[in-house]
Batch of 2 targets.
Target 1
Amino acid sequence: MKILCQIYKSIFFATVLFVLLISCSLETEATGVINEVPVEVVKETEKSKGNLVIYSGRKESLIGPVIDQFKSISGINIEVKYGTSTEIASQLILEGSKSPADVFYAQDSGSLGSVIDMLQQLSPDLLEKIPAWAKSDKGKWIGISGRARTLVYNTDNVKASDLPKTLNDLCDAKWKGRMGWAPTNSSFQTMITAMRKIWGEDKTKAWVKCMMANDVKVYPKNTPQVEAAGKAEIDIGLVNHYYLYKFILDAGEGDKFKARNLHLESGGPGSLVTVSSIGILSTAKNKDNAHQFIDFMISKLVQNYFVNATREYPLIEDVDIHPLLTPLHEITKANISLSDLADIQGSAKLLQEVGALPK
Amino acid sequence: MIVIKFIIYLIIFLFCIPFIYLFQFGISNLFSSINNLFTFYYFQLIFNTIALVLSVTFTTIVISLFLSWATEICKLKFAKLWRILLIFPLVIPSYLAGYLFILFYGTKGEIYQLLNNFGISVDMPDVYGFWGAWLCLSLICFPYVYINLSTGLKLVDRKLEDASRVLGHNHFQTFFRIIFPNIKNSLFAGSILVALYTLSDFGAVSALQFNTFTLAIYTKYRSFDFPGAASSALILILISMPIIFYFIKMSVFNSYKISQKTSNFSNLKLFDLKQYEILVQLVIFFIVLTSIFIPFLMIFNLILRTDIGFVKTLDLIKWSAVFNTFSGATINSILCVFISLLLVLNISKKNNKLRFVFENLMYFGYTLPGLIIALAFVYFSINYFFSIYQTWIILISGYTVLFLSAGYAPVRTNVDLIGDKYTVVSKSLGKSFYSTFTNILFPLYLPGILKGFLNVFILTAKELPVTLILAPLNFYTLSTVIWDNLEEANFSAAGIGSFLLILIISIPTYLSVHVEDIKIKFSKTNK
């Protein structure tokens, strides 16, 4: 009897805990209003019911609040699938015409480029709001927020006079063993694509080779590089601009976090600005809702949210950038259209040939 | 009987899905890229992978032999506490473990900062590469072997030990000559899990940048090289084949040699360490420190990094994630244990060939990267079974294919140890199979069942790639929450997610150790 008693006791406790967990889950559902933004009066569109399925390569912690807001404004029942942009793209390719997805929102334009045959033409009223450099030349996707390629450098170890001016300066022997990059990262690979367009294959290959000869440290993605630059684990990292500000703001007042961004001069690939981008699948069942959602994403409200929550660049006019950022027009954008940068596979192949990526 | 047969073939079919997918997409590329196989680069990749697998497996075996000897055979204070704590390294998902590892041991990590504060400036060894990956994976994987070994030790007939001591062997001679051969089976069952986990791990090797085959496969997917990834996965299968064959052969081979007498718990005689106990305690403490306390400390460090406060960060966590993690893991582990029992009891003795084929298949499920399994299931259900796409059913099927072997191993070890004499006796007494099972076999199989349940529960709760791809829409688990926030550098939310994950996993961990202890007490008092 004793054993039964003990077992029951344990099961009882487990059950109590379980019930507690469930009750918690019922209480606090659907939090998260866009609270960092002074909420403007948003017109209540008439409650058009219906569904919308979003595949998102951007994280829930980031765009969850935006989606909740849209849900409450539009009354549309929204279902989201989160994942890594490239993995979702490969899933979409497998799903083919049976895909349940209506909208694909990806971290980069390359992921949308890889499924471009599955996307439908966006309507002109969406397209015209976005500048030409930040949308597909076929009108199949548009950018939602801009992210600049930068160098992040440690302010203790790199003097202002020492700062490189172009990517080629990084080949200098004085940077040996002091740099980091993330060759598997899709933004990095997009930059390589831009390099191939601007410099040509041979010069790009030579650059990658000289970076490797300079003992560049490999990181899995951007954030660990920014963190490493702050701790002086590396002195220079090749990253997107916006991760840094999170670390600076998290570290609190003063210059506790010892890294800053450097925008490279000239219209070279080092000053490329990429975009997170969105498109509607041609097999979508809820095209009107999808259109409405994209329209919401490029509204002032959401663009402001991106400015404050992620410190990315807004892509519509009349929205100010975050005070910590360098204005977009001061970064001489690489002289290239993002639609030409869809060939990520070619860049991956180049990186493989040189040995920067596994074959 | 026909139902059981149907279920068995259905399960075998489930395990074939990834292979069908891989052959369809990878085989043509495999032949076109076969010359790649003989390049220096590939040689290095294969060498890296095998070196990591062997070294991690060997290290975990050494650690676990010591730990299970200390906690199960020796008279040791806090043995129950250690037994519970030593399971906890499993709790930490490997992508998180890699990150925490860098935070602590990195060139500018916490150790460096600490020493720096005392005015000592040292160059920390580089954590990136082989040494980091080896240490990090060894520290999070050893409990797989430890759990199996301690279960095995409980089941060894301890009268053998008495006999050995009477015949003049000392304690250690007895352990290595008498006890060890009897737990070899468990050793293989546990170390195959470690070997294959290392082979299929993405998180830790990616954070610590050690180039293995699995990392190469993921990298190929990320650059949209699908056929290349599929053909690499086929090569991964080829690499793992000898490992799996070896382990299965060894454990099947051994299962005939082990003492078929069941353990008599009342017979437990603990070895007195005398003055060496403090030394043993210290070593155990050191292992617990590096594999549990330090990661947990780093998790709290993450939580405290931003100053928005614990409660506010707690709000950031979706509570449905807690519920999904718990229920997904529970359902899957019950299912896996149930399937394992079904398989072991139905195909073990009668059909050795089927058993051999099945066990191999099962371990391949565990070897393949989760991404491949998930995409294979996407492909399968989109084309042939659309109604289950993005439902719990397909998610659980994916989990089952991934982790069945982790539940199967301890169950099979246990069933093999017990043998079928009880069934025969019970049958001759006219009892039905059902009543034999519930009254006699189930209690005897309980240690294995519990360990199997625990293994699968932990693995499922921290699983990431399959969850991301196969889950229903609007579905979150703690693992996806941690990943999400870690990627976005929301460190405190990631820390809280990890903390909750640990809490959830500690429930079955505690219960399984607890129930086993009750069982031991019970059999003692019954004597």
Target 2
Amino acid sequence: MVLLPRVLAGRLKGFLRELALFLKGLNQAILEKSVEALEAEYVELEYVFLTILFGSFIGVKTIPLFASLEILEAVRDEVLILESRGYRGEDVLADLVSSLGGEW
Amino acid sequence: MFVYPIIILLVVLAIYAIAYILYGRKILEQRVVRADASRPTPAITKFDGVDYVPANKYVLYGHHFASIAGAGPIAGPALALNWGWGLPLVWVLFGNIFIGAVHDYLAIMSSVRHGGLSVMTISESTMGRKARYIFLAYAWVALVLILAAFLSICSSTFISTPSAATVAVFYMPLALFFGLMVYRVGLSVKKATIIALILEVILIYAAYYLPLILPGQDPVPYQTWILILSVYSFLAASLPVWYLLQPRDYLNAYLLWAFVALAVIPPLVIPIIGLTGPWITSFVAKGVTIGAVSGTSAANADIAWFWPTVPLTIACGALSGFHSLVGSGTTSKQLANELDALLVGYGGMLTEGAVSSLAVILPAAIVWDFSAFAANAGLTTDVLLKAGINVTKTPVITSLGAVPRFTTSYGLVQALVWSRLTGGDFVAIYKGFSTFAAWALTAFILTTLDTANRLARFAWVELFDWVRGRSPGVYRVITNRWVASLIPIAIGAIMAAPKIPDPLKPTETIPAYQVIWPAFAGTNQLLAAIALLTEALWVYALLKVRGGVSYLIMIPAAFLWLTVTAALFIWMIYVVPSLPLLYIVTTGVLVAISLILDIALIALFAVSLRRASKL
Amino acid sequence: MGVKEVIGVLITLVAIIVLVYAYASAYAMAGGQVKGDVALCAAICGFIVILLGPYLWLGEVPTAIKKFVEAKTGVKLEEKK
């Protein structure tokens, strides 16, 4: 019985801590939401850039094949974007709905 | 009667909390989806630093909620008040728990399990390629109708609350100014935000003294606003994103939180005030609820049975198809842990339902009968007259149009709260808050207008990609950039522009959104129906959940499909013949196409279900 | 500054003057409602035009990005003509 207030106090502190995290998260969400269309544009640009770099792999003559191969090492991280775009393919509608803003 | 605002608040919170724990956690999370904290999500397995980035669950919740809360949950329940305040509340509570929030949650989880693909692709993989085209068609129709409905609502709000128009005129330059401060001058975001928010508050206050009233007899002002807003949305869609869109959306997020926070305060400050409205006026409302033109026989006929036509009014408040796209868009690609999805998806939708009940339904219940409200609040009807409410001409809240219902009830309740707290003048505070309410509504609408433009163009091009193989010439014509973007705006503006004259009262007109809204709501719910049917199939076929638990998803999905289809048939048969020719040709045809696709959809679903049950 | 920027500055100034006129005349004359035809025209046109002016004036690229790219490449960026 003596421990009960202590347990309750502990629970209350935990709840308040979660509430503080919740409010901080909301604030960050507001900030992030304000740039999500910009980020969508940025990803589009990255994707176009990578398509230019590696067009010769898919039969589109952009830069010479050997140049593409040489550059492959340098853009290893960016190729992940190309890969995920290839996986999603034409499935861009949902991304646009959620990132261009507007309340649905 | 012991039903008071504080009781309503506690009931709403309690029901949602219980549903979250018992239905959300125990059933959806553990038994249907079998969420596992140790299973890595796409944000981790496909991490690329741009699309797939794990996010903190509260940040994701804020993102998701801000993307789904807007004008829809406000306009819908305002129209549904024809059934009383209790019945719509029941739908917002239980429709949300068993259908709406489930739909949002399963959209996120199915997308997560498919590596971040959207519900559209999942519907293609469960029901075949035709399902994808049905999905795109519904999305396009819903976007065109949302353009029409929102153009109309925004214009009529600017007419009924002219001070909101002033706020709009100065808000865009303000958002621009904020963008320039941050991006060109280089001021820190925090400082720029504080400056912008202070200016915004001053603006709302000043707008009360400086309303913007367009000249001319009705319907000229309304149509002028439609034109201005179309030009604006075209312009906003063409300017760079950092310049206007993002700063405006950023400031709108603060507006949303202020709106939500203010909505929660009344039940706490005036907990015990009598609710003057009827819990239920009648299970069957007059046809005017679902858009029948008043004065015709359909409008006065008792054809709006609460079930199944309630989804034609309360659309986004309880369930909205666009949420499945939002959830399976960036949200699923940023989910760090499968267990977070319940808070983000299920919790986010429940929060929207709570906002809808507390910001729209509860204030309407309090101020329903204006004279009774005045008596309860210790005011006289003269005070209400000074505030602009004539209790002899409009004795109850349902005598007003949908948008004025919202701004009046929200304004009155906030005025009561703040005049009691600060001792200020009731009428002045009322005018300030009804401006704020009208402004919040139009701010949400303005952001959706230009996005809907762009998305409609995109959906149109996607819809016709099968033409390319058959006939490249036709394809090029159909998907030409200008054709694709002009068609939605043109149809939307044409639908929104007329003010339908009342056959019985020649000087009164009905705003177009009252006719368009049921069509928009119906197609929105059809979009949700295809998403929920997809998710039911996903649960049944791919997760291989059989037996009793699978019924928990199948039954809501089937119920939703049945409800929406029945509602739209009632609308087509009883309401459409009474509409002016323009609406029969545009709205009627669009909904007819959607209904044909709807029948095709259930056939596809049945076929896929049979195939899955054999495996 | 290029021609585009000058036009942008002029348009912005005109828009600000027009908007201020609309509301000042409303305040002074019509008792606070922007109602007369000229004032209304001014308010609406000002609203549309003020969105364009700063765009033409201040160009497309946000300053931070311009500085970043100039620092990285060492080449001074021209304003897009």
